[in-house]
Structures are given as structure tokens and as C-alpha cells.
Amino acid sequence: MKVALVTGASSGIGEATAQELQKAGYTVYAAARRVRRMEGLAAKGVRVLEMDVTDDGSMTEGVKKIIAETGRIDVLVNNAGYGSYGAVEDVPLDEARYQFEVNVFGLARLVQLVSPHMREAGRGRIINVSSIGGRIYEPLGAWYHSTKFAVEGLSDSLRLELKPFGVDVVVIQPGGIKTEWGGIAVENLEKTSGGGAYAEQVKQLAGFFSQMDRASEPKVIADVIVKAAEARRPRTRYAA
Ligand code: NDP
């Protein structure tokens, strides 16, 4: 049976993806920090890993466990991520660095841990969740967009590196999806730039994000990810 590892599986897109991959017949490992939030998945037979993508030890142990139990990883879905918003002059650089740790370096570390197994098997698929924000940009989103543009560039180079070994690299670019992402982004935005010189821009962007309640359900993207995992010849990018 094919094996998939999905990060950021305690809510939103990752949770829905773990569920849909399992329905598609994969043995699925769901990874996140909040293990209790993955009890619903565990009850459905998904295997749960406590993993913080900023903690090397938890990623190393998680991958080791999957290989020990199954001997393979066919699909890696690098989905964990969040949006830290605010004016460039207001966002503390430590926060910007942390966002890179989660959205870019966590993804890259998992690639380092998983791709040798895929390479040796001569097959595998790495699916990196970027964003429409990896193609376009908006004010007060400089650091989030920077992380997603980095995911795009890293994925494009990686695709060329791994192609000779039969490993595909696919980028997913979700548009607005109804998850915890919007609330976290607004909270960060207001904490960082609310009430200051950028208050008017903050109001506009927060208003836009609050409409995400009416956005698509996470299953829409989960279905796209399953399609990308299963396609005989996957596209380089899927937007939805
Ligand atoms: P959610 O906030 O619902 O889910 C984010 C997931 O990432 C959670 O499961 C969270 O798990 C995990 N995560 C965050 N930080 C860490 C960390 N340090 N280590 C491990 N896991 C972490 O948001 P979405 O489902 O919307 O987001 C999934 C991906 O989709 C993100 O990369 C996001 O940028 C991208 N995206 C989302 C869009 C949207 O409109 N919702 C649009 C475009 C892209 P836990 O806290 O338990 O660790």
C-alpha cells in the first residue's frame, strides 16, 4: 500500500488531505503539533505523528518511524504553514524568521529527510503547498508572500534535481479557503500594525480576510492534492 505523510494535518487543508488520501487507499501519516486535534483522523485509521516543523528532532523521528513501520514514503505533502501579516517596518524580524522556519525551512528539512528514500525507490512525489500568494502580492503581506515565493523557487529547482530519479515535485496554489488560516492572519496583522500609521490598510486587509468565511471548503484543495498525487504525469502547478 502506498504511504503518504501530510504535515499541518491538525486542521484545515492538511486534515482534509489526510482524510481524502486515506479514502484513496493510502496509508496516511498525519503530522502536527496539536495531536489531540488529530483524534478524529486517528479514529478513522490515520496514523498520527506529533511533529513541529521547526524542530529537527521531531521531523527526524517522524520519518524514521514511518520507514521503520512501512519501509516507504510515496507522497510527502508539505502543507504546514501560517500567515504573519503586518507592515515591513512593524514586523519584528524574529517573527519574519520564524515564519520562514515554518513555511520554508520545515518544508526543506522534510525534503532532506524523505527524498533519499524516494530516490532509492526510484519513485515518489513531493507536493508543496504554496499559495496564490506565491504568485501575487499585496501590501502588509511582504513576509508571507516572501515565504511562498521561496516555496515556489525551491520547488522548481528541486523538481529538476529529482526528475532523473523518478521523483516528481508539485506545487499547489490554493486561493481563499475556509480554515483557521484567516483568523490567525488577522490576529497577527492587528497585533503588528493595528492602530498605527498603517491602520487604514490594516482595516482593508482584515475586512478582506474576514470574508474568507465564505470561501471554499478545505476538501476542494484536498481533492486537488489527491489528483496531484495520483496523476500519471502530474502538472508542475495546480491552482484552485
Ligand atoms: P490552518 O491554520 O487551518 O492549518 C495550518 C496547519 O499548519 C495546522 O495543522 C498547524 O498545526 C500547522 N502548523 C503551523 N505551524 C506549525 C509548526 N510549527 N509545525 C507543525 N505544524 C504547524 O490553515 P490552512 O489549512 O489554511 O493552511 C495550510 C496551508 O495552506 C498553509 O501552508 C497555508 O499557508 C496554505 N494556504 C492557505 C490558504 C487559505 O486560504 N486557507 C490559501 C493559500 C495557501 P499545529 O498548529 O497543530 O502544529
UniProtKB/TrEMBL annotation:
UniProt entry keywords in alphabetical sequence: Oxidoreductase
Oxidoreductase is among the record's keywords: yes
GO MF entries: oxidoreductase activity
One Pfam entry name: adh_short
UniProt cross-references to PANTHER family, sorted A to Z: NADPH-DEPENDENT 1-ACYLDIHYDROXYACETONE PHOSPHATE REDUCTASE
NCBIfam families: PRK06182.1
Family note: Belongs to the short-chain dehydrogenases/reductases (SDR) family.
Name of the protein: Short-chain dehydrogenase
Organism per entry: Lentzea jiangxiensis
